[in-house]
């Protein structure tokens, strides 16, 4: 009798684990994946939101990369990889304020914004947002949360019925609660945890990002 009871409990626990795992990977509960017909890769990055000098040292910062005379942010590169595979455009989230060149100062300012629940005004060159059914969204994990301009982005547009594939750059904290937060902000969207990438290894993960996007496209 005791053995049978233990097996029943074990089976129930296994079922719960499987259901939880499926719910976490598929997005918001009761929200179905939309067929991907037209997508856009949207990103928020320090580059584009910071007035970096032309001779900025990419080697001393894990958040920027240099290609010739051009510097790009980690989240921007991920968006470019996703867009290249999906055959879509990229669009940048730009705040109406500039972030400090110094990384530590940016980290401190981001913490202050978070405490104040600040919502900086943002623009996004996304065109007619209603035309897109899928957003490949990339941004850095700041203090285990979304950067506040990304909150502003969610305030700005209606994501109901859309797929949001979340890519996060980080320095050891992974996704933290970012995907959970987006699901709470957008309960009528299909929010999917895609890939988290350490900032210093973004350029090594192009194929992984492209393979992931290719798989979603079917």
- Contiguous uncertain segments of 5+ residues: 1-26
Fourth-tier CATH superfamily name of the largest domain: Flavodoxin domain
Report the principal-axis shape: globular
CATH-assigned fold name of the largest domain: Rossmann fold
- The number of distinct structural domains comes to 2
Number of helices: 6
Nearest-integer average pLDDT: 84
Radius of gyration: 19 Å
Residue share in helix:
25-40%
User: Which architecture of the largest domain does the CATH hierarchy give at level 2?
Assistant: 3-Layer(aba) Sandwich
Order of helices and strands: HEEEHEHEEHEHEH
Distance between the termini: 48 Å
Widest sheet: strand ordering: 5-4-1-6-7-8
Q: Report the structural category.
A: alpha/beta
CATH class of the largest domain: Alpha Beta
How many beta-strand runs? Answer: 8
Strand content: 15-25%
Question: In terms of quaternary structure, what is this?
Answer: single chain
* Main beta sheet: 6 strands, mixed
């Amino acid at each position: 009798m005791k053995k049978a009871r233990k097996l029943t409990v074990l089976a129930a626990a296994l079922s719960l684990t499987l259901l939880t795992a499926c719910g976490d990977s598929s997005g918001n509960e009761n929200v179905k994946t939309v067929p991907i017909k037209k997508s856009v890769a949207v990103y928020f990055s320090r580059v584009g939101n910071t007035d970096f000098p032309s001779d900025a040292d990419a080697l001393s910062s894990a958040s920027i990369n240099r290609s010739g005379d051009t510097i790009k942010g980690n989240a921007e590169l991920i968006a470019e990889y996703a867009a290249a595979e999906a055959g879509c455009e990229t669009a940048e989230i730009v705040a109406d304020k500039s972030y400090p060149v110094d990384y530590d100062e940016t980290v401190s300012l981001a913490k202050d914004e978070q405490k104040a629940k600040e919502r900086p005004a943002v623009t996004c060159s996304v065109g007619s947002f209603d035309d897109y059914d899928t957003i490949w969204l990339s941004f850095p994990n700041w203090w285990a949360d979304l950067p506040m301009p990304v909150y502003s982005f969610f305030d700005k547009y209606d994501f109901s019925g859309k797929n949001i594939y979340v890519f996060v750059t980080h320095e050891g904290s992974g996704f933290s609660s970012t995907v959970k937060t987006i699901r709470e902000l957008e309960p009528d969207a299909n929010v999917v945890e895609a890939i988290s990438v350490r900032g210093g290894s973004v350029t090594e993960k192009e194929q992984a990002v492209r393979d992931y996007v290719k798989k979603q496209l079917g």
